[in-house]
Design a protein that fits this description.
This protein has 355 residues and is an alpha+beta fold. The protein has helices at 12-24, 39-77, 104-117, 138-148, 168-181, 186-198, 205-212, 218-234, 246-257, 261-270, 276-288, 340-354; strands at 82-86, 90-91, 123-128, 131-136, 156-162, 307-308, 312-313, 319-325, 328-334.
Length: 355
């Protein structure tokens, strides 16, 4: 058997001589003017090169992530990203609603759909102090509140947070949604125009109709103005205004222009109205009756029954808005965090002032 040879560890001097030999070895490439780098240096260079490539890849991915994040923030700022909001933080009366009558049968169908399929279309809100004001989706929010009483999963609702405040954009958004989902009645269209003026959103009913129903034809906007006149003159006495057909509403508006307002109001005030048909019979009889000789015939124009007063801003935030009609003053105070005691004290102060 051959004897095994023992390996000796090379000395430092010998390693230095080997490295010097590699460095002095001429290049195989006749056009290369520099000496070849030592193997260790080549390995280090290759590692550095690979490290640089990894850095470039990471930078590309980081740039993509930053771009996606920016686009996400832009979409969120534009109100295009739905957020889950607690229903207790949403003020359903943030703006005056255009829908007057809720169909309980349709609500029952909505409740069943939400239980089985969830909410497919988020509501629209805008920020208001520490909470949110409802712009559109009143029925969906109402349904969630009913369901939340027995099921905690409905305690929050998907919502688009829009930056439109409570101005004209809020009313336009509400009207547009209801026109698309379920047509408003002619009376409801006229009524919301009057209410928006009362809130100080528009300077006149004509301006409100032109903005809220900008997509409608000129003839349709004229009809909306006629129903707005009906609401201004008789809205506080009508029991079934939504049941008025377009033909009936236009007939009433024509009578109002002819000076029949006092006669119609008196007839409604004295009548014992039970259903829409009875109410229309009362109106029709009053329109067909002869006016009192002492009554001066109006020269035309819109009867101004509801007059919006100038809103007053509160020093600590919030506003006080009011509407004046012949037989009442409607005051609306917008101020979050008011206690029940403060509200009661406010009512008593108003009573003492009017006494």
């Amino acid at each position: 058997m051959a004897k095994r040879r023992r390996l000796a560890v090379p000395k430092t001097e010998e390693l230095e001589e080997l490295e010097a030999g590699f460095a002095a070895k001429p290049s195989l490439n006749p056009f290369e003017g520099t000496a070849s780098a030592p193997p260790i240096a080549q390995v280090a260079a290759e590692a550095a090169s690979l490290s640089g490539m990894t850095t470039v890849t990471d930078r590309v991915e980081l740039a993509k992530d930053q771009n996606d994040a920016a686009r996400w923030r832009d979409a969120q700022d534009a109100g295009l990203v739905a957020e889950m909001l607690p229903i207790d933080l949403i003020d359903a009366e943030y703006i005056r609603r255009d829908r007057m009558v809720e169909d309980e049968e349709a609500m029952a169908e909505l409740l069943e759909s939400l239980r089985n399929n969830g909410l497919r279309t988020p509501i629209e809100v805008t920020r208001e102090g520490d909470g949110f004001g409802l712009i559109s989706g009143f029925r969906r929010l109402d349904a969630f509140r009913r369901l939340a009483k027995t099921d905690s999963q409905f305690a929050s609702i998907p919502a688009f947070v829009r930056g439109i405040g409570s101005g004209q954009g809020a009313y336009v958004s509400m009207v547009e949604e209801n026109e698309l989902r379920s047509n408003l009645s002619p009376y409801e269209r006229g009524r919301i125009a009057v209410l928006a003026v009362g809130q100080g959103i528009f300077e006149s009913t004509e301006a409100a109709v032109d903005v809220l129903f900008a997509a409608a034809s000129k003839a349709k906007r004229s009809k909306v103005r006629s129903f707005a006149m009906v609401h201004e003159a008789l809205g506080d006495l009508l029991k079934h205004p939504v049941a008025l057909s377009e033909k009936a509403g236009l007939k009433i508006a024509s009578a109002l222009r002819g000076g029949a307002q006092t006669r119609l109001r008196q007839a409604l005030a004295e009548a014992d109205v039970m259903d829409p048909k009875t109410e229309w019979d009362v109106l029709e009889n009053a329109m067909n009756s002869s006016p009192s000789p002492a009554t001066k015939k109006a020269r035309g124009g819109r009867p101004q029954q509801v007059k919006p007063l100038i809103p007053v801003k509160l020093a600590g935030g919030g506003t006080i808005q009011a509407e004046l009609s012949p037989d009442e003053v409607r005051i609306r105070v917008r101020l979050p965090g008011v206690s029940e005691e403060d509200a009661q004290e406010l009512i008593e102060q108003v009573a003492r002032h009017l006494s």
